[in-house]
Amino acid sequence: MKKSNFYVVMLFTLLTIMASMVSCTDAEKSKLGGYGDTFTVKVLGPDTVITYHSTGKVISERESDGYYFTNRETGKLVEVSGNIIIEQE
User: Fold this and answer.
1) Spatial contact of 39 and 85, defined as CB atoms under 8 Å apart
2) Number of CB atoms found within 10 A of residue 86's CB
3) Which residues share a beta bridge with 39?
4) Alpha-carbon distance 64 to 9, whole Å?
5) Dist. CA 70–CA 47, nearest whole Å
6) Is 11 helix (H, G, I), strand (E, B) or coil?
7) 74 and 45 in one domain?
8) Are residues 53 and 11 in the same domain?
9) Tens digit of pLDDT for each residue in 41-89?
10) Rounded to an integer, what distance in angstroms lies between the CA atom of residue 37 and that of residue 53?
């Protein structure tokens, strides 16, 4: 490949990456950058609120209405669904 073609390809790649980063909203950037952070998960029941703290990212599966994460206090996997509030700590 000629040197000039290489620079054109690199410039196009860089511009594409920059354009995709600009098009993300603040919430989308936070969601992508949330890996490794801890979260507070509140499960809202009719008369109670159960609060968990994750050791990392809280994940949702495509085919599920719930979320799963590792509980910081017990080190065990927790799966929850229903009325949930998830906040980054």
Assistant:
1) no
2) 16
3) 88
4) 41
5) 25
6) helix
7) yes
8) no
9) 999 999 999 999 999 888 888 888 899 989 999 999 999 999 999 998 8
10) 11
Output b/e per residue, 21-41; b: 16+ Cβ within 10 A: eeeeeeeeeeeeeeeeeebeb
Nearest CA-CA partner of 84 in 47, 57, 56, 45: 45
Phi and psi, residue 45, nearest 5°: -100, 180
- Contact call for residues 80 and 41 (beta carbons, < 8 A): yes
Q: Per the structure, how many domains does the chain have?
A: 2
Euclidean distance between CA atoms 35 and 17, whole angstroms: 20
Structure tokens that stand for 21 in this block: 């980063």
Task: Note whether 78 and 52 are within 8 A (CB).
Answer: yes
Whether this prediction's pTM lies above 0.70 is answered by no
Q: Which domain holds residue 2?
A: 1-33
